[in-house]
Every structure is written in C-alpha cells, then in structure tokens.
Amino acid sequence: MNLKSLNFKRFNLKNLQPQRLPPNTLPIWRDLVKDLRLCLVLLIIAAVIGLLSHALWPCLVIALVLFIGLQFRAFYQIYYWIRFQPEQNPPELSGVLGEILYLLYRYQRQEKQAKTELINTIARAQTSISALQDAVVLIDSKQHLEWWNPAAEQVLGLKAVDVQRPVLNIIRDPEFAHYFENLHDYPNGIKLDSWVKPQHFIQCEVTPFGDHEFLLLAYDITHLHRLEQMRKDFVANVSHELRTPLTVISGYLEMLGEQQDVSARWQRAFKQMQQQTRRMNALVNDLLLLSRLENEELTNKDQVIHMASLLNELFDDAQAYNSDYGHTLNLHIESHCNLLGSKLEIASAFSNLITNAIKYTPKGGVIHIGWSSDQEHGYFYVEDNGIGIEAYHIPRLTERFYRVDSARSRDSGGTGLGLAIVKHVLAQHEGYLDIQSKIGQGTTFKAVFAQSRLVE
To answer: Which residue range or ranges hold the Histidine kinase domain (predicted)?
Structure first.
C-alpha cells in the first residue's frame, strides 16, 4: 500500500491546522481608506473636467464606472491567480482586495506547511509500523480491510488482492468472527490457532477508533503458549506424583500418633506434622483442580444448577465451618433464576468465596451470602464487614499464591489458590469476579454471570 491509500481523516489534525489570524481592524480601515481616496480622486478629476466641459454628471458616472472597473480587474486577477497560478506569487494589488489577497496567500502557505508536516508524520508512522514484527491492520467503517503492514502478510496471511474486502471474509475463523462482533466481552483479546502456520498460535486484539473504524493487532504467541503448557504439565505432573507419598506419610503419621506408648512430646510433633501434611495435601488438590480447570477437562457446563438448593447446602456447610469464628451468617435468595454450568465447579468456587470471608473476617463479624439477578446478569455475592483490602491489592488477588498478608494466610491454613480457582471457574461459565472493598468497612466478592447462563 502506498501513502496515498491512507485517509487523512484518521489522524488528529488539530496541531497541524494553519493558525487563523487574530482579528485586527486597523489594516482593513487603512486599506479601505486607500480605496475611498482613489474613488474620491477620480470623482474630483471627473468633477473638474465636467465643470469645464459643462457635462458634470456624465463625467461623474464615467469616474464611478472606471473605479468599479478597476475593482473588477482586481477581482479577476485574484481569480486567475487562485485558479491557474496558485503556486506562483500573488499579483501586486492595493486596497482591501490587496489585503484579502495577502491573507489568502498567507493562509495558503500555512495550509501547505501543515499538509507537508502531516504527510511527513504519516510517512514516519507508516515506516515505523511497517518495521514492526506484529501485524497491524486498519479496518474501515464498513469492516473492510484498508491497510496493513508487511508483518500482517506473515502472521495473518493477507495478500494485496484483499484490499477493501470484508475482514470476516478473509479471517474466517468462527472464534474470531464471534470475537469481532462481541468486542466488549473480550477485553484482553482472543487466542486463536494460526491458519497460516500449523501448530502455531496468535493473539488478536481489535480496538475501535474514529468513526466506527477498527485497529487489529495480531502477534505470534506460540513460544509463550508452549511455555505456559510446559508450566501446566509440570504443575499437573508434580502435583499428581506428590499425592501418593503424601497419602503414605499421612497414614503413617496418623498410625504413630495413635500409639499409646508415644510420649506427649512426640504426640504434639506428630499432630503438627499431620496438620502440615493435610495442608500440603490441600495444596496438591487445589493445584490439580486448577490444572484441570485450565485444560477444561472437567464436566460439561450445561447442567441446570438449582441455585436455591445449592446455596442452602453451602450455607449449612458454612454454618458448620463458622463454629470456631462466631460470625453472623445471613443467606439472601433474591432471584428464582437457576444457572447453567457444572455444579461441582460452581460449588467449589462459591465455597471458596464463603470460606475466605469467614477465615479473614475478625471474629464476631457479619457475613451476607446472596443470589440475585436483573435483566442482564446473575449475581452471587459474599459481603463481610471485615478489615477490608487496600485498593492496590485488588487487581492481583486472583493470581496464584498472591497474599495480602502472608503471615495471616499461613495462620488460616489457606493455599493461596482459592481465588485463582474462582477466576477460572467463572471464566468457563461466561462470568467474572468483581471485588469491591473499603478499609475498615469490609469487602464484597461478586460473581457476575451473563444472562445467557440464567434459566427460569
């Protein structure tokens, strides 16, 4: 694509527009006086000649016609210059028309300078974009391909003949089509199997701009995908291999702890080892669950989950877990809608949110557990009146092993994977986790589900 194929309207011309002249009436009056003086001189000469020849009025009319003719001649010179000789210097004129011609010439030069700067800016931008290894594609308001850099031909397989063809006719991947038509549902873009290179993967991100136009960025993430897969396989394999030795260790510790001839000192040691073994076993189980969630190996997501029944079960479990904390638990079922998904996964995610609220709320707190819906979403929420969470922690809470307070998390026996599991469960159910918190007032964890997941 050459430079002319770019449409100037796509760029912000605000800083490149020619500067308008400030209002100043003095030059206008000065030039107007010149024109009036010329008209007056012609009239005086005509009057003198008219008085001498006893033809005053005809001479005055001739003077006015001559003055008007001179003005028309100046108008014609301006027209001829604009129409046929705009690149040359303007004709020399005096009076108001001369001042107008000067202003036009000055504005023309400023506009030419601005256009030159704009073209240079576009050229630099195009050169820079062309040097990128990532694909950059401009899509017009009709969703037609308008321009792309050379990398797009390697990453997306675009060809010169694809100019002005609909983007969805060129990139025919159904996942990309759904993404392009529902951009607001994919804030981080979408990962796709490459249709250009087998066993490669690309990340696509579409950003709307201008007048219903789009910028498509695409880049090869095969290396990152393989590293991520290696990490998942490593975690899954190590976690699986740890289960057997942990089971053996736990069994022997339990057997030794029940021996009557063991001293109290060793019984305390065995009890502590059992506690740590159970904690390690919980960590391994969470890692395995998270690994299966990432690989989408669990049950299908189209079961009808009866939310009232599920929440009552979770509430009973929470009451039992709460016996050591003394919180006041309240259950609010404000919607009759049920949820489509995997009951096992949803129960695990909701249970994580509830137990987190119980564990991290100071004793004697108040915790609200609820289910509600509106015309667009379904909401499961857990609200506590605990100490709250600093705002800078919130974006990272769903990261693996991220802890707001490491010492407190160790005391509570948490694995640091609970919210990561919740995030993955919700993502697989067309949902997301919304966290609102204020220091000293408490925290609300809200699982938000799309309307398509709700059933009566």
So the answer is: 237-453
- The DSSP result for 295-322, as a single string, is TT-S--S-EEE-HHHHHHHHHHHHHHHG
The CA dihedral of 28, 29, 33, 39, to the nearest 10 degrees, is 60
Encoded amino acid at 41, one letter: V
Residue-by-residue DSSP string for 5-69: GS-GGGS--GGGSPPPPPP-HHHHHHHHHHHHHHHHHHHHHHHHHHHHTT-HHHHHHHHHHHHHH
pLDDT digits (tens, 9 = 90+) for 190-219: 888 888 888 899 999 999 988 889 999 998
Q: Which two tokens stand for residue 115?
A: 């256009």
Q: Which residues pair with 303 in a beta bridge?
A: 341
Q: Are 148 and 135 in contact (CB under 8 A)?
A: yes
**Torsion-angle region of residue 100: left (phi > 0), alpha (psi -120 to 50) or beta?**
alpha
- The interaxial angle of helices 56-84 and 25-52, nearest 10 deg, is 140
Q: Which residues pair with 332 in a beta bridge?
A: 370
- CA pair distance 278, 282, nearest whole angstrom: 6
SS3 175: helix
| % of the chain beyond a pLDDT of 70 | 88
Q: Do 360 and 386 contact (CB within 8 A), yes or no?
A: yes
**CA triplet 24, 31, 59: central angle to 5 degrees?**
150
pTM, two decimal places: 0.52
User: Is the Cα torsion angle 278, 367, 420, 289 positive or negative in sign?
Assistant: positive
Q: Give Cα 235 distance to the centre of its chain.
A: 31
Domains and CATH numbers, the chain: 3-128 (no CATH), 133-220 (3.30.450.20), 230-294 (1.10.287.130), 303-455 (3.30.565.10)
CA 170 to the chain's CA centroid? 24
The radius of gyration of the chain from alpha carbons, rounded to an integer in Å, stands at: 39
- 102-107 long-range Cβ contacts below 8 angstroms, 24+ apart: 103/21, 104/78, 106/21, 107/18, 107/21
Distances (CA, A) of 175 to 183, 202, 262, 430: 12, 12, 63, 15
In terms of Cα–Cα distance, which of 170, 171, 172 is closest to 161?
A: 170
